[in-house]
Amino acid sequence: MVSHMTSRKIIPLHINDLLSCTINPIHIIADAGNLKFKRGRVSLSDDPRVGAPETAVTQGNVHAVGKLIIEDRHVTYREIEAKLVSRWIPHLLTEEQKASRVNWCQKKLDRFNSGNSKHVYSIVNGDESWIYCYEPETKRQSGPTKVIRSQSVSKKMFATFVSKAGHIATIHLNEQRTVTADWYPTIRFPKVITELRKINPERRIILHQDNASTHTAQKTRQYLTEENMELLDHPPYSPDLSPNDFFTFPKIKNRQRGQRFQSPEEAVDAFKNAVLDLPANEWNNPGFDCIKSEQLKIIAEDITEPLTYLINKCFESGIYPSILKKGNIIPIHKSGTKTDVKNYRPISIISSVAKVFEKVLSTRMIRYLTKFKILSENQYGFTEGKATSDTITKIVNQIHQNIDNRIPSICIFVDLKKAFDTVNHKLLLEALERIGFRGNAYSLIESYLSNRPQSMQISGSFSKEMYIKCGVPQGTVLGPLLSNIYLNDIFQINCVGKITSFADDTAILYEGTDWSDLKNVIENDFIKIIRWFNSRKLSINYSKTHFLPFGSYARHLPNYTNFSFNINDQKMQINRVPNIKYLGVVFHPHLRWDSHLNYILKKVRFVSYKIKYLGNILTEKYLRTLYHALIEPHLPYGILAWGAACSSHIYNLDVFQKSILKMIFKKPKLYPTEKLYADVRMYDIRHLYFLHSITHYHKFVNTDQKIKHNHYTRYKIRGTVRSYLAPKFYEIIPKDLKDLRFGNCFKRNLKKWLHSISRTEIHKLINTNIN
Description:
This is Reverse transcriptase domain-containing protein. The chain has 771 residues and is an alpha+beta fold. α25 crosses α26 (722-730). It has 29 helices and 22 strands.
């Protein structure tokens, strides 16, 4: 049983009563002030309409509502309405009515060039709404211990106008109980048009509102014509909605629930600031078709069958749809000066439907590649179950073993120029054919790569459309997989060095008997690597490609500073550097981690200043969220490699973490560290290392790939190798934890157990094995 509250009394409702409403099962209580009842209407039943169903009580609707309630006991009427109203009001349009809607849509597509016309940015979405000084949180937001507080009486009407480029204006409006056609040209639009004309006085504005009678009234249309504004019409038989109703208003108002404002004007200003803070990708459409992924999810059940049919037809014919190849390129700044185009990464924004198609194709390709083990195990990029931390850990373990055994070792870190953008299509197709892609599969990928149009998009302006002749588009689902296939042959080269890659970031580790011989080996062997890259039309960036020798002490390292190579009478040179950053981790010749820890400290300190500034403004809840979002992700990254660093190197980072936590949770400076971490239920650096070591080792144990380690510990550095420490940590955890399969259940129970172990015990265990 559920209840619906009216202004007078609470009427108990059963789920079948909810479904028996024929129009909108959410808004079932008639408003006493409704104009229709003032005019003499007495019946609560809906008048029969052509094409409308007689009842919404169907087996499908009952099943759908029951499923939603089972999945979430706190689901509200409004959420049920948002998910199922399209099925509760299935207007049975005639063929003529359907054709009318299709014709309208086609006209708009032609007018705005399928969304690529610059006039799309002239469309302004506007609507008005009420905002309250206080609106309580939903049950889902406040949790199970919800304190019921009534909505405040103080409220303010405001109008918000947005476009594809983002927020335009939010205007305070006079309070009026009834909005009439006379109100628009006298109160609402003068303020709005003034704001809009501030940006561009000559701008042609296409206004997109809901189709309420006051918006489409003759007086409103006449006023808009006088102000050189066009009113965009709606397709026939459309609901009374505007984009603000299902995007801007619910998104922002849900964020403001639970906050108290001193006045309605303050609430409107907070709403405006929240809209301005929305990132650009919230406004920009993901592709030329202006369809977002969220919209596809809503209609997933309705489009699954036709979309499956179309995808299967493409598989059968070996032809990729031309309309899905189209992409808008958005340049993303990487580093360096913003005036140099080389410092930008081109990201291709494609249709959401194209992403679905590519995901299906990518899944089938990965299944085939995995079954026959075609891709090398040393390629860690864009591979399920592998991450950058795995790449770093593998390289560090190999270097540790060489240092332990006093084997001279040198690692060359190779950087490529525009690897994604210079993939040769002909060579890629040859590589696909060699690994077994033939027939329709080959033709489909060939069709996918050929005749791909794209245009550059900057601040709402589009460049001339051009066709790409090489490269795989970044930002697509299929691009990284095709890049991995293209680079996979590098692991087949008969070279001395051990090659490890994460996408195009390649590290080659060389080992030798002495430094002089190792130099000769590298200068002779690395020529094979250079020639392979040249044969694939890929260019090494020698200004960013460096090498690093590794040894216990400075006296154990070589004295040469570069390698020279002669390729086709051209002299190439790779220089030695004091340390190098690879995949976000700073490597040192002695595998000291003070440089990397200082690098982490520099990044988190920059963020901490902003958090300290907000400390007196935001509540503990929001400060904690900022910590989890901006500081915590930096701490465990690559920790399997550097987490066992000596205490003196970790000290500064440890002190910083304690100070920022004390500031967030309003603890005094001398508050005990042990109690601090217990109160906030967070982990310090040593705890994180312990946690990640056990998790990683348990993963290998469950996949029958136990980490091999040598118990010979003559050299001190042996104790810092993860392959040595992880098994020792793993022996400590309870047996019932070891029996759990690797996954979220194991991680969740491990964290609970770890909270029961004191911080001092963990530190003592780790320091005993390190020192």
